[in-house]
Amino acid sequence: MNIFKKKTTPKDALRTSKREMAVATRGIEREITSLQLEEKRLVAEIKKTAKTGNEAATKILARQLVRLRQQITNLQGSRAQIRGVTTHTQALYASTSISSGMKGATKAMVAMNKQMAPTKQAKVIKDFQKQSAQLDMTVSETSHNLKSLLYPTSTD
Fold first, then answer.
1. Is the pLDDT of residue 36 over 70?
2. What is the pLDDT of residues 109-140, one digit of tens each?
3. What's the sign of the alpha-carbon dihedral 115, 118, 121, 123?
4. Span 35-59, average pLDDT
5. How far apart are the C-alpha atoms of 103 and 106, rounded to whole Å?
6. What is the C-alpha separation between 96 and 8, in angstroms, rounded?
7. Helices (H) and strands (E) in the chain, counts
């Protein structure tokens, strides 16, 4: 293990993985293409030997054709598995991106909560409500006193 080696990021790991999977897929597709060409040649050769009436050679070639088609089928299955792994890797990267985004959002929310200090905010609101109530009472009392001074009622 190299201690000086830089740790790979998920983005780099995804890029490397995609590149390797693409190379593997292309290799398998090349192999499938060459096997399909071989299949065409073999079919033509089977027809040719069948026309000449050589049954033993035709049977051997037919067995080869069956094996060849099985190889093609197996390679197509491998190609599908590689594509599935590629898709799965991309999904994992997406979930990693989402989790890192949520981590950042959580940090921002924590910072805002520290800055806002919800308990301080609640105390300020409570003090404001108290002062507002006192002001309302003072205003109503002053208003009542002014009315009584301006419009005295005679009860003598």
1. yes
2. 888 878 887 788 888 899 999 999 999 999 99
3. negative
4. 95
5. 5
6. 14
7. 3, 0
Let me know: does 76 contact 32? Beta carbons within 8 Å. Answer: yes
Return the CA Rg of the chain.
42
Which one-letter amino acid corresponds to residue 130?
A: K
* Count of CB atoms situated within 10 Å of the CB of 61: 19
How many residues appear in the chain? 156
Contact 98, 58 (CB under 8 A): no
Q: What angle do the packed helices 55-116 and 10-52 form, to 10 degrees?
A: 170
For 95, other C-beta atoms within 10 Å of its C-beta total 10
Which residues, in sequence order, are CB contacts of 40 under 8 Å at separation 6+?
A: none
CB 57 within 8 A of CB 27: no
Q: Give this prediction's pTM.
A: 0.61
SS (H, E, C) 26-87: HHHHHHHHHHHHHHHHHHHHHHHHHHHCCHHHHHHHHHHHHHHHHHHHHHHHHHHHHHHHHH
